[in-house]
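Consortium newsletter contribution from the modelling node. Members have asked for a concrete example of what our holo predictions look like. Here is one, prepared for the S-adenosylmethionine complex that several groups have been discussing at recent meetings.
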Amino acid sequence: MKEMHHDHARADVDAFDFWENRYRTGRGDDGRMWSGRVNATVAAQVTGLTPGSALELGCGEGADALWLAGHGWKVTAVDLSTAALEVAALHATREGLADRVTWQRADLTTWHPTQEYDLVTSAFLHSPFEFPREAILRRAVAAVAPGGRLLVVGHAASPPGSGHEHDPDAPPLPTPAEVLASLDLGEDWIVESNTTVQRDAARGGHDVTLLDAVVRVRRPMH
Ligand SMILES: C[S@@+](CC[C@H](N)C(=O)[O-])C[C@H]1O[C@@H](n2cnc3c(N)ncnc32)[C@H](O)[C@@H]1O
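And here is the predicted structure:
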């Protein structure tokens, strides 16, 4: 994934306009803002799981959703940005995966899943706006089918070059333990990952090491 430019969002710009503008103006020569490749941490976490139904929250241009679809999952992928979902749908068609992914434009601050999934996933669901991430993730917990999993991958440290790494006013990034605690899980849930993982990436022509917070939990069968 390419990194976002973290100029602070202005209070008078709403979240939809912000993300829409970012996706429309941030496109590279390939028509995408992000790399189009699955996030390595997401792929590592999902590899080996038995495919089923999956819900992705904040799918952006759909690289992770398309990887899931290509690995046998039947995916519903939600994002706020029309521009991002247009790119996602285009690539789904190009890759012959259009019938395996449903792209849904919705504002997660108010959206409630209406069914349960074998895998609910969110990657880098960060926003420079006031964003009820914890409430969204608790709704995600409720959407996990018995025996299914929730995977939450996020930044554990501000990415080098993001402009936030030395910014004392930058919003704090939750540790994996804080993410886990915020999910408010029942005692019978199984914690399969609660860790930080290093990931090598290229940023602006430099090799950097990113730190991902990874939480993966499994709902019991009964
Ligand atoms: C940092 S990007 C991550 C995108 C993608 N998951 C990835 O890893 O490349 C955050 C995503 O969350 C989406 N988003 C932000 N606020 C949202 C909201 N209220 N409802 C739905 N999606 C939202 C943005 O449009 C953006 O695609």
